[in-house]
Amino acid sequence: MALNEALVQSIVQEVVSRLETAPAAQQHGLFADMNEAIAAAKQADAVVRAMPIEQREKILTNIRRKTRENAEKLARMGVEETGMGNVPHKILKHQLLADKTPGTEDITTTAWSGDKGLTLIEMGPFGVIGAITPCTNPSETILCNAIGMIAAGNTVVFCPHPAAVKTSHFAINLVNEASLEAGGPDNVAVSIFKPTMEASGLMMKNKDIQLIAATGGPGVVTAVLSSGRRGIGAGAGNPPALVDETADLHKAAKDIVDGCTFDNNLPCIAEKEIVAVESVADELLYYMTTEQGCYAINEAQQAQLAQTVAPGGKLNRKCVGRDAKTLLGMIGVTAPEGTRCITFKGKKENPLIATELMMPILGIAVAKDFDDAVEQAVWLEHGNRHSAHIHSKNIDHITRYAKAIDTAILVKNAPSYAALGFGGEGFCTFTIASRTGEGLTSASTFTKRRRCVMSESLCIR
Prior knowledge:
- Residues 15-25 have low confidence and may be disordered.
- The protein contains 16 helices and 18 strands.
- The N and C termini lie far apart (90 Å).
- Strands 11-12-13-10-9-14-15 form a 7-stranded parallel beta sheet, sandwiched between helices. A 6-stranded parallel beta sheet has the order 1-6-5-4-7-8, with helices on both faces. The protein has a 3-stranded antiparallel beta sheet with strand order 2-3-18, with no helix packed on it.
- It has 461 residues and is of the alpha/beta class.
- Strand 2 (109-114) and strand 3 form a beta hairpin.
- The radius of gyration is 24 Å and the shape is globular.
- It has helices at residues 5-21, 34-50, 53-69, 71-82, 87-100, 138-151, 165-181, 197-205, 218-225, 249-261, 278-291, 299-309, 324-329, 351-354, 370-381, 395-405, and strands at residues 30-31, 109-114, 117-125, 128-132, 155-159, 189-192, 209-215, 230-234, 240-243, 273-277, 294-296, 341-346, 361-367, 387-391, 409-412, 432-433, 439-440, 447-455.
- Helices cover 43% and strands 20% of the residues.
């Protein structure tokens, strides 16, 4: 029989289809159909729910170990697939989540006893959780969420961003391998071969999904909050870094640039712009350009850059997570080696200042005094209530700013990443639910509070 073009194409499509739907040895947790994925996660949930806490902790220990062992591979996969961020910083992020994401120790019980008996408040699992994850921190978000959700006794259905499918699938497979090696079930974390918006919609409507955690832009968070399910929304931020006249300007310049340039400004908590009081703005800019590798651009270059990275006010995804030299090259500027960040002074309404760009661009909005700086910073944060930063030695200024900005995170006199336990105290998370009020999520976030009452008994005082 002669092989014509149509027959060849038909055979190729059939082979590809079988490869995608066949259970691959190194692809645990992946399915062709969203309903199949949810059913598998539900079956695994029955096992996880019945596990003693000690067994869950063994799975988490394995996930942490595998994350550390594969930190470089995951980092390279993420950069190669998405084109965003840089490998050394992504390695650090994986190491951080492996070491500082809370596990079963976050699941606690509260008790009251008295003349009327004993009451317990226990943290119970939701069951199967739906999780929508971004391309900016694909494997980091999946692994961090998996640790917290499994610690709480849940399983999870992930809907990764289509631009980070390979990296996300690798992380999901890693979680299931960790479970199986520790004596747990397969499919504690699942997804589908080809994530789509339609598949995410099916997930959100499925009766077996009782909680949805969305990490991404405002659109996906709005969709989750309109789903009719309990939603945890980790959405946009535009964190301002306020610098007042009492700040240590050498340190402020270093901290702000270090935070802004970490993984090319992809973390949602990273410094996106500066608001500096007029009396120190020029000195701060001087230290940024002479000591911290910042490249100052003029007004014409600002206009060019704005049109390149956010044409018509819409974010150019090809620029997100790129380094400063690459961004400058896009407007014909050859920056010197060691250039880390782009900076300039401008009005707060400048699109390079007012827009969350997720790029190492730090515009400086100049304020006449501290009160004006607070007002500008609050405006620039756009009511996201996500993250903000301040560099000041005046405790009253710090307090006033904290009350006015009202964010889930406020970092004082440190780089933004100190908020996640990197050079600061506290735990790590990659899902910061400012919009729905949970703040920095952890295992306890993914539980239901249950009250158990024994009347007239078990009080032995």
